[in-house]
Design goal:
Elements (H helix, E strand, L loop, with lengths): L5 E6 L2 H9 L8 E6 L7 E6 L1 H4 L9 H7 L6 E4 L2 H18 L2 E6 L2 E5 L8 H18 L4 E6 L2 H9 L6 E3 L5 H5 L12 H9 L5 H6 L2 H8 L1 H11 L15 E12 L2 H21 L2 E12 L4 E12 L2 H18 L4 E9 L2 E2 L5 H4 L5
Parallel strand pairs: 2-4, 7-8
Antiparallel strand pairs: 1-6, 1-7, 2-3, 5-6, 9-12, 10-11, 10-12, 10-13
The chain binds 2'-deoxycytidine-5'-triphosphate and calcium ion (CA) (2 copies).
Amino acid sequence: MRNRVVMLADFDYFFAQCEELRNPALKDKPVVVGVYSGRTEESGAVSTSNYVARKFGVKSGMPLFLAKRKLEGMEAVFLPVDHEYYDQISDRIMQIFRGYASNMEQVSVDEAYLDVMDQVEGSFEKAKEYAQKIKTDVRKQVGICFSIGVGPNKLVAKIACDSQKPDGLTIITPDEVERFLSPLPVYRLLGVGKKISTKMDSLNIKTIGDLAKFDVQKLIGVFGKTLGLYFYNASKGNDNEPVQETGEAQSIGRIGTLKQDSHNLDFILQKIDTLTADIFKEVQSKNLSFKQVAIYAVMTDLSSKTRSVTIEQAAKDQETIKKNVKVLFEKFLNESPLGLRRVGVKVSGFTREEPNQKQLTLFFQG
Ligand code: DCP
Ligand code: CA
Ligand code: CA
C-alpha cells in the first residue's frame, strides 16, 4: 500500500496576523488581540498576540492588565477580537486548500488537515515542494502565513506542525516517526491533559517513548480499553483516522454590507440573494445537507442580532435557504423598527451522504 501523506496547516498568530494584514503599520509593534469583558477598560483576556509581544511574555488566556504591564513603555497595540473578519480570511484560505487536496478537514478557524497522498504520489520529497507551493500561493492570494506539518497520518502531522512555528515546514517520514515522537513529553499527544499526564507521571511515563515501551495490558488496566489502546497506538505514531470534512458543529455563512441602511424587505433580500448563492455553492461543493438556517443583522445603532430556524428534514437546495431566510427576515423586521446596516446568512447542522467511519477505524491499528 502507498504511504498516506497528510498535512496539518495552522495559521501563525492568527487573529493578530489578520490585524496586521489590514494594518501593516502594526507589524513591528507588539500586537495583542483580546476579548474585553466590558466591566472596566482593562478587564478581559488575551486571545492571541503577535510574536513581537510574545517575546515579552504575553500569552493566550492571560488577563489583559497583565499583558499591558508586560508591554509597558512599548508602542503596544491592543485590539478587540473581530471574529467576522477572521472568519472571512479563514474561509478564503480554506477554499484555496480545497483545491490542493483530495480531502480537506477544517478543525478550527485556523487549522485544517489536507490529504495530499494522490497529489504527491505518496512521496514525502514531493510533499515538501507541494507544501511550499501552497504556502506561497496563500501568501500571494491572501497575505497570510502559516506553518505546515507533514506526516503519514493526522496525529504525526499535528505534532510535526506544532514543533516549528511560525512559518514552519516540518516533514516527518514514516521512518522518522519513532525517533521524532519518542523524546517528546506525553502531553503533546491529543487527549493527554493535566490529569492524565499526572497519572502517567506516577507510572513513570514521561515521554512518548516511555509510553510506547509501557505494557499495553497495564495501560488498559489503568485507563480502560478504549483509552489504553488509543494511548498505545498514539505513542507509536499509529493513527488511521481519515481526513474528512466533518461538517458537524461547523457552519457556512456570509455577511455583507447593504448599499444603504434599510428596513425594506425586498431591498434586503436582494443583497441576501448573492450571499445565499455563495453559501449554496460551498454547500454543494462539499456535498453537505444542513438542518439550520440563520440570519444575522447589524442595526444602524451597531447592535447585532441573530435569528435561526431548524428545519425538519435535512436539506441541500438553495430554495430552502432562500425560503427560510425570507421568513426569518420578515419576522425580524416586524419585531425591530431599526434600519439594518449589515446582513448575513448562515447554514449549519451538517450531515454528509457517506456514513462516518471515524469512530470505527480509530482503534483498529496495532
Ligand atoms: N485563541 C483564543 N483564545 C485562546 C487561544 C486561541 O481566542 N486561549 C484564538 C486566537 C488565535 C486562534 O484562536 O489566533 C488560533 O489559536 P492558536 O492556538 O493556533 O494560536 P495562534 O494562531 O494565535 O498562534 P500560533 O502561531 O502559536 O499558532
Ligand atoms: Ca495558529
Ligand atoms: Ca490552531
